[in-house]
Amino acid sequence: MKRLRRPEPWVFLILFTTYGYFWQARDWNISSRLMLTYALVDRGTLSIDGLDDQTRDIARYQGHFYSDKTPGFSLLATGPYSLAKRVLRLPDHPLNQRGFPLWAADYWVTLGTSGFLTALTGVILVILAKGLGCGPGQSALVGLTYGLATPAYAYATLAYGHQVAAFALIASFGLIWRVHDRPIVAAGLAGFLASYASVVEIQVGPVSAILGLFLVARVMGKHWPPRTIFWFGLGAAIPTAILLTYNKLAFGSPWKMGYFYEVLDQFSTVHSAGNPLGLGRPDWSKLPELIWGERRGLIWFAPIVGLTVPGLVVLGFRRSWSVLTVSTLTMASVLLVNLSYPEWTGGWSTGPRLLVPLLPFALLPVAALLATGGRATTALAIVLAVLGGLVMLQFVAIGARVPQDIGRPWLDGVLPLWRGDKPLPGWVFGNRYAQNLITLWRPELIQKLPAWAGWASLLPLVLFQALTIGLMSRFVGKTTSDKQPE
Asked: Phi, psi (5° rounding) for residue 392?
């Protein structure tokens, strides 16, 4: 009963169950990562020969096909895939078949990686919010808003690398920021996580470096003993060694990557051996579209981040320099990379896909604002969270991805599907709505409904969320915050 008076288990339960409700179809980006996982577990090989028709996000080297992604997500996914295969007796993924959208193992791999780690990220934000002075209710609001009212919701149901990278980065920050009885273990784990985020998505490398500098600053501030710098570096060296070993085994050199050998001209013109990330000069004209634009605007898809800037001001007044500095630098570096990438829209996406790793850090200033503000501030945050939650549910329900050439994704992409307009657009993955537990359990019930009423399959999920949040509000105690030195 004592644990039920804390918000963390409630937040995890709500988020993890929500993500497990959906079974999204594959796309090229997802399949590129999953095929490496299946090749590793099913056949013990890094080559995805025989699986290459499932995706065009592939590299070709010396006559063999490989995923063009860095291997962090795929390696991590071997754990839940191996467990699901053993427990559920799932067959190996078939070889030499044309691409198809749904395979049972995809569900378990996605839930065991993106879903599980996004729910854990929500819990971490609850803990960090309490450390910033929030009470239990406000802390739960921060965690749930992240998981249900930002694009994190969409990518928790997809096998992309964003949510794994976001978890690793915010967890590393949390380990460094909080004071520990065993600093050597904490520093080593923080280094491992910061580095592994870059093995999942190499474009977050600047954030990994920021976290390393943050530890140095904590040592200089006498929050950590000097020897922890060594242990942080040692922890960071392990994922780096994994990446270099993978590159050597797959592409003949530790310094070569899948991006060097793209198959499609569409990608090879952006990514190359000289510029594997495809980055150029920042295109500042895209800044408004990434911040508030209807197609990819962060505030449009996550209204709660409208409170981020006021929260940064609050952190400054509170002299919370560590949180202020790391949050600002992290958000700025991820944004700068997005502005410097020619395919800045992120392709088929929900919101600004390439900005997703900064979302946990954008919620930290919001937590500081809630801790300082009164009831009106909390009420405003609740309103913004509800708005964001409604938007995200609509996007997740129709597959969590809208093509980049649709300039008004909600108005011209999502709303027609919810209205039941016919015919279905060609970009839909076979159905008006994504697969979910209800459509899998009783498909005949949904098929009898008119097209405009297909959303009825979401009612059990919404009811569960409402009841669980209501129970949480009754059980969670009025405990004091776990405020940390800043």
From this structure: -65, -40
